[in-house]
């Protein structure tokens, strides 16, 4: 019997060792794939620009460009100044990448003097939908396209020559203008506060609630909002146009390129996990580059409002927090959930955010942040990654809280925890109601939450 037990233990150890060896083999195979990929650093562009093709529609991938030779797509190319050299420009491309960040791409850059510049594309950042040992765990639960960024580093020589358009390739540079993205400079607003509002989509968006949300952001001191429009209806587009005309809003048309196994329709309504996480996070990665020249940047949905307790605006709050924490990379905030399931607390107003005052106590679920882009490497929906020597700061709930208005979150075993009544938003009621109704009247719209 003793010998049998020994053999049993020996077999178990052998199986464990075989499992570890197999796992190491799988991981190493990923890197072997990288080593085997050809590197095209010395591509000679067979290039003869055909400007007439600029009118060609990208019927399959619409607002993205497709990499020549690879099933990967990129939506933006943002040029930002290099922190160490004024003669170097870093062009960051954000997109959905089937190579999982291992693409050996070459940047094809058309210049204002009619010349073409080629340079290797360097990997910059890849989103991991599983934060626990992502190199291993995501081997077994992969998205078809990872939200990924590459950077093209360009030396600036002639002051009169500008980099105009950019494309990625694994073969030769395209001569079709529809295969290129315009290179846009990163917005620089040194004292500004900007919001990344992610993706707007679906029939559940209510125009009057959007107007309420935009007006609250203005009151709180927000200078710029970026939103990605995924086939929104005409009424929502009307609201967007109003705030674009005001100079508050920038709208980036959005689509979901590529194909999923089984010909699943690419949308946010019919979500496919974990791909939907990458489709959403791409907009945050992209926004971090577009608006990275603002002093402060935050990610927020249309049902979230960050309210300071002792200040009227977020800028006042942030100035105070930065003064108290001069090395801070950014600030995390608790969240209070105002659940529609509990019904209206007030029946004397048609303002949605003023009606639902019942909330949970401050919680850490779905925490959000406001950060300083100059001190942060990258950001996703609920977290940001600071440069190593800049710390995170967790703001006490008595100082400021994110108020999240929604239905009961999925996964809550009890949708009725201890309920409090929070009236902080009422300090903005007079000006908020006035401004919202003026916009509703101008756009000939009615409040969705009217009590009549």
Automatic annotation (TrEMBL):
Which GO cellular component terms are attached? cytoplasm; membrane
List localization entries. Answer: Membrane
Enzyme Commission number(s): 2.4.1.-
- Report membrane topology: Single-pass membrane protein
Primary site of residence: membrane
Q: Which family does it belong to?
A: Belongs to the glycosyltransferase 92 family.
Name of the protein = Glycosyltransferase family 92 protein
């Amino acid at each position: 019997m003793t010998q049998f037990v020994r053999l049993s233990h020996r077999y178990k150890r052998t199986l464990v060792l075989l499992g570890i060896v197999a796992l190491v083999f799988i991981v190493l195979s990923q890197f072997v794939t990288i080593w085997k990929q050809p590197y095209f650093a010395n591509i000679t562009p067979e290039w003869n620009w055909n400007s007439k093709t600029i009118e060609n529609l990208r019927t399959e991938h619409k607002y993205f460009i497709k990499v020549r030779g690879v099933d990967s797509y990129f939506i933006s190319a943002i040029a930002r100044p290099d922190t160490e050299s004024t003669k170097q420009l870093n062009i960051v491309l954000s997109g959905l990448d089937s190579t999982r960040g291992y693409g050996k791409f070459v940047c094809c850059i058309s210049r204002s003097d009619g010349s073409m510049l080629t340079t290797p594309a360097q990997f910059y950042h890849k989103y991991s939908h599983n934060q626990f040992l992502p190199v291993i765990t995501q081997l077994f639960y992969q998205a078809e396209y990872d939200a990924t960024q590459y950077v093209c580093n360009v030396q600036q020589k002639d002051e009169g020559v500008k980099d105009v358009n950019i494309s990625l390739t694994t073969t030769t540079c395209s001569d079709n203008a529809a295969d290129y993205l315009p290179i846009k400079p990163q917005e620089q607003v040194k004292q500004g506060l900007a919001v990344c509002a992610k993706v707007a989509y679906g029939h559940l968006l209510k125009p009057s609630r959007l107007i309420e949300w935009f007006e609250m952001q203005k009151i709180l001191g927000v200078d710029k909002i970026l939103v990605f429009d995924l086939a929104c209806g005409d009424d929502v587009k009307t609201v967007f146009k109003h705030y674009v005309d005001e100079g508050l809003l920038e709208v980036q048309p959005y689509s979901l390129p590529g194909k999923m196994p089984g010909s699943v329709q690419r949308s946010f309504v019919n979500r496919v996990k974990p791909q939907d996480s990458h489709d959403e996070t791409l907009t945050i990665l992209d926004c971090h580059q577009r608006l990275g020249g603002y002093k402060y940047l935050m990610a927020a949905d249309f049902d979230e409002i960050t309210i300071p307790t002792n200040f009227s605006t977020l800028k006042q709050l942030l100035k105070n927090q930065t003064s108290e924490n001069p090395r801070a990379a950014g600030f995390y905030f608790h969240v209070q959930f105002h659940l529609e399931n509990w019904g209206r607390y007030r029946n004397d107003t048609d303002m949605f955010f003023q009606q639902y005052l019942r909330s949970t106590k401050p919680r850490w679920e779905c925490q959000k942040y406001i950060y300083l882009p100059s001190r942060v490497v990258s950001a996703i929906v609920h977290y940001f990654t600071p440069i190593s020597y800049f710390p995170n700061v967790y703001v006490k709930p008595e100082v400021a809280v994110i108020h999240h208005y929604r239905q009961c979150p999925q996964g809550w075993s009890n949708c009725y925890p201890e309920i409090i009544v929070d009236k902080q938003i009422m300090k903005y009621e007079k000006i908020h109601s006035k401004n919202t109704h003026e916009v509703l009247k101008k756009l000939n719209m009615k409040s969705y939450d009217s009590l009549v």
